[in-house]
Design a protein that fits this description.
Layout: E1 3-7, H1 16-29, E2 33-38, E3 54-57, H2 61-72, E4 77-82, H3 88-97, E5 100-105, H4 109-121, E6 126-129, H5 136-150, H6 181-227, H7 232-237, H8 255-260, H9 279-282, H10 287-294, H11 298-311
Parallel strand pairs: 1-4, 1-5, 2-3, 2-4, 5-6
The protein binds adenosine-5'-triphosphate and magnesium ion.
The site of adenosine-5'-triphosphate has 18 residues, from helix 1.
Amino acid sequence: MAEIICIIGNKGGTGKTTLSHMLCQGLGLLGNRSVCVLTDTYREPLSPEGRRYLTADARSAEALQKVAEKLAGLHAWKGVIDGGGNRTEVDQKLYDLADLVLLPFRDSHEDMRTVIRDLELFPNAYALPSQWPTNTWQRDAADKALEFMLSEYKHRILTPVAALSSTKLLLQKQIPSELPTPLGNACRRIAHQVVALLNQIMAAREAAALEAEQQALAEQQAAVEEIRPLEPEQQSAEPAPEADANDNAYGTDSPAQEDDMPMADNAMDDVSLDDAPPAPAESLLDPMQQEQAATLSADEAATLAMARMAEQPSSPSYEHEDYKPHPAGHNPYGTLPNP
Ligand SMILES: Nc1ncnc2c1ncn2[C@@H]1O[C@H](COP(=O)(O)OP(=O)(O)OP(=O)(O)O)[C@@H](O)[C@H]1O
Ligand SMILES: [Mg+2]
């Protein structure tokens, strides 16, 4: 997949088109394959002949889409997209598809104010001072203005591209067969700077993707651990927690010890009385009733058993017809001999 560099910005005449061609020429001189993509409907496509790069015409939305798709399928290429001035909507689209966004601006307060707005609008973009004065005094003044107005963004400002009259040769429809050396050098410098920045961006992106992948994996792993039930052999193989000095010496679940040990005071702590079956009451029921009771709740079964108890004859009553009191003075057990 080709890396996409977009050169955009709200202000016209800042050097977007010139920088796009300089960057592509520089990339070619450094041995990189690139294509300079024209999106500005007010400009004519330039012939690729004699250049170290290809040119593409993407002045319509459909054409831009096709070029973007083509670039996506190209490996080790770089696509440099030249935006047009005053096209915030197009700039936003280009910003979204770019790996690196450059915002050229010149040595003027108006350009600087505009680039500040664009830096705010495009938080991953870099500002690139363009047509920077070469005269010492002018350059000092330009640097001071830059420091004064853009100090807050200084980590997002690239090394200035100096003003160079021969740059206009690159904007000719057909470039001369030989280009001046200073132009070649200027193009190389821009390309060097951009390649280094791109490498940094790509490395940071890869590291972030890797971190996100690891994080997602760890989260998945944690979710699986949470829902996986323990295997039976795992459960039995689990070592009993080691008793420390304060532990109840009999608080063990080991069956071998359980039989030998007296029951600990807290042995019934875990037993819920609600779970205890109503056995004594149920035993008063006949088998059919017991079967019925099995389908009843504990309370219902108890009520049934109580009713049944009420029907049962209790211990023999004195009023019972079979009861014959012993005659007075009769001792049925005999009398113990006197010692
Ligand atoms: N580094 C440079 N040195 C000297 N002149 C330059 C440099 N860069 C750009 N220029 C000149 O500045 C003018 C505007 O440049 P350019 O057309 O590249 O700007 P632009 O941002 O593409 O403009 P537009 O917004 O109209 O598309 C041109 O005349 C160009 O030759
Ligand atoms: Mg232009």
